[in-house]
Amino acid sequence: MSQKIFFTFIFSLLVCLTGLAQDSVQNNQPKKYTIGIRETPPFVEQSSNGFSGLSIESWEMANKKLGWNYEYRTYNSLAELLQAVEKGEVDFSINPITVTDQRMQKMDFSQPYFISHTAIAQKKKSNAFAVIQKLWSWEFISAILVLIGIIFIFGFLVWLFERKKNEGEFGGKGFKGLKEGFWWSAVTMTTVGYGDKSPQTTGGRIIALVWMFMAIIIISSLTASIASALTVENMNNEINSVADLDRFDVVTVGSSSSQEFLNLYRIKHEEVVNGASGIEYLLDNPEDLFIYDEPILNYEVERQQVSDEIQVLKKTLKKDYFSYSFPKDSKLVKEINPVLISTMKSMQWSRLMENYN
């Protein structure tokens, strides 16, 4: 009986030692971190050789010091990626996520690794198109109609004084006389000076004198308006504040910080999936604006070779800070931050920024 108890004890001891050995092996294996990403050129790009881009390279530089084992998990949309980070489906994301007040309530962020701006892209308009557009506007047409009316009024007044004493030049009674008066008024206004007609009566000359001075003012104003169409048309469409966006149809990427910004100021807008689709939208809707991250806008304009058609305005709406994002209260933030800051001070990081800028 004692022999049986002895063997039972030895067997139990071996089982316990085997379990401890397995736990020790498992504990010594490095944890494999899951990093959520979404294709966002030029920060995250996917090819047959894997992933590349500024965010990918920044993480690989930082991980040389961390030495972590990791894998990428891709998401189709920005909304899906943000939800994955918020719910802890991934350990963190290295995508260029802008730090906002709303997002800070749901997740944590690392030290910013890229400073950007929210910018505006729009379809370019040629000066010729701007002039044609202005010439066909109701404002311009109504101004011409008013001018024709004034020319007719002064032609009629001169004809009243000249129709009897200067019948040879102003055509006497009826429509023919009014036509000659209109012709004289138009020639006088434009200062052509044919000399084929001239008032002979005192009343006619007073009307002519008044019309000459008025015509100088009218012609000067008209000339200035037409000339300004070549240079000022785009100034009328300038965006000097967020409130100016209300004058346009606006589109932005869904779930982006740009959309948060537009929602904050209650700017009506449509959504697109990413930067590439936003640029394509502008090509089909030349009167609209695309609001999104400046580096992504510039990249897509160059990648799609549409710099002759699309411009990214120099005036920006706000400054953005791109950071790694983490689930709320993640302990990884404190581990990554010092390494990321150290990496950003290196010469290798400076060269990386120069290449992407």
Question: Which strand-content bin applies to the residues?
Answer: 15-25%
Query: What is the fold-level CATH name, i.e. the topology of the largest domain?
Result: D-Maltodextrin-Binding Protein, domain 2
Q: What order do the SSEs take from the amino end to the carboxyl end, as H and E? A: HEEEHEHEHEEHHHHHHEHEHEHEEHH
Please tell me how large the radius of gyration is. Answer: 37 Å
- Largest β sheet strand count, sense and barrel closure: 10 strands, mixed
The count of domains is 3
Q: What characteristic shape results from the CA principal axes? A: rod-shaped
CATH superfamily of the largest domain: Periplasmic binding protein-like II
Overall structural class, as computed from helix and strand content, comes to alpha/beta
Structure annotation, total helices: 15
Overall helicity: 40-55%
The parts where pLDDT drops under 50 for at least 5 residues are 231-236
* CATH class categorisation of the largest domain: Alpha Beta
Describe this protein's structure.
The protein contains 15 helices and 12 strands. The radius of gyration is 37 Å and the shape is rod-shaped. The protein is an alpha/beta fold. The strands form 2 sheets. Strands 1, 4, 5, 6, 7, 8, 9, 10, 11 and 12 form a 10-stranded mixed β-sheet that branches. Strands 2-3 form a two-stranded antiparallel sheet. It has helices at 2-28, 54-66, 78-87, 101-104, 127-135, 138-162, 167-170, 174-189, 202-231, 233-236, 257-264, 275-284, 294-303, 332-344, 347-356, and strands spanning 32-37, 45-47, 50-52, 69-74, 92-98, 107-109, 114-123, 250-253, 269-272, 289-293, 310-312, 318-327. The protein has 3 domains: 2-114 and 323-356, D-Maltodextrin-Binding Protein, domain 2, CATH 3.40.190.10; 122-126 and 238-319, Periplasmic binding protein-like II (D-Maltodextrin-Binding Protein, domain 2), CATH 3.40.190; 129-234, Helix Hairpins, CATH 1.10.287.70. The longest helix is centred in the middle third of the chain and has 30 residues, at 202-231. Strand 2 (45-47) and strand 3 form a beta hairpin. Helix 2 (54-66) packs across helix 14 (332-344), helix 5 (127-135) crosses helix 9 and helix 6 packs across helix 8.
